[in-house]
Amino acid sequence: MENEQTLTGEQSLELITSMISRAKNDYYDTGISALLWGSIIIFCSLATYANQWLKWVALDYVWFLTVVAVVPQVIISMREGKLRGFKSHESHLIGGVWLSYVIAIFLFSYVDYVLNISRDAPVYLTLFGIPTFATGYGRRFIPMIIGGLACWVFAIVALYIPYPNALFLMAGGALLAWFIPGLLLRRCYLKAKRQHV
Amino acid sequence: MFKDLNPILHSQLRLAIVSLLITVKEAEFTYLREKTNSTAGNLSVQINKLKEAGYIDVTKSFKDNYPQTICKITPQGVLAFEEYVKDLQAYLNIKK
Question: Which residue is closest to A14 within chain B, CA to CA?
């Protein structure tokens, strides 16, 4: 696009459409964040379930992995921001939704610890669903909409399931809300990257 | 009678820049260069023309010791783009 050639009306319209479509198709998420959190929640839920029988002291602290994972998450977010080269209109808003979720989940974890709530899975699953559904809805990404809805359905089911078994619902929620959408995002990202090479 | 199309926007590269910026909140110079397949020199000249017209805001800073130029469309730029599209639709006789 070097020459200042005169544009016809049709060429102008074609150019506008092509640029808008390029920018829209350029939205990408590497999928790593979703895979990271999906894997961690699945692992922590299943490890806690297994620990009902294993009784390993170390596994009592497995959920601290979610605190440790905040560090790679910050690094991933910074790297993705650098790679992208632009900020979309909704990225700030969706960032705010996830930040609210992180604050709410840590706050509830503390409340859970202080009050020793025995059946906490429905609350966690309800919280998991909020940012997942909001992101899927905002970005028109159906797997995350389904994941968010699945978390809410699991939250209701968890009300009628005794504690250790409800951990399977937590793992299932993380699988549908983050791990599977993360895999799909990763596949799209790698495909787009190959096309650019 | 057809209205004349806005001469600031009726140029290939400037129209491409504004079309990209209308879809994002802000974009780096390198991103615009990559998407428009233009040279740094030409892009820089056209960005300056858009800036002088008040259609975009340009912020220059340093990131990791490298100069970074961030472009953002202004409300005036959005209005001009909308007006340009309307005129274009009238010119091409496209009904909404």
Answer: B16
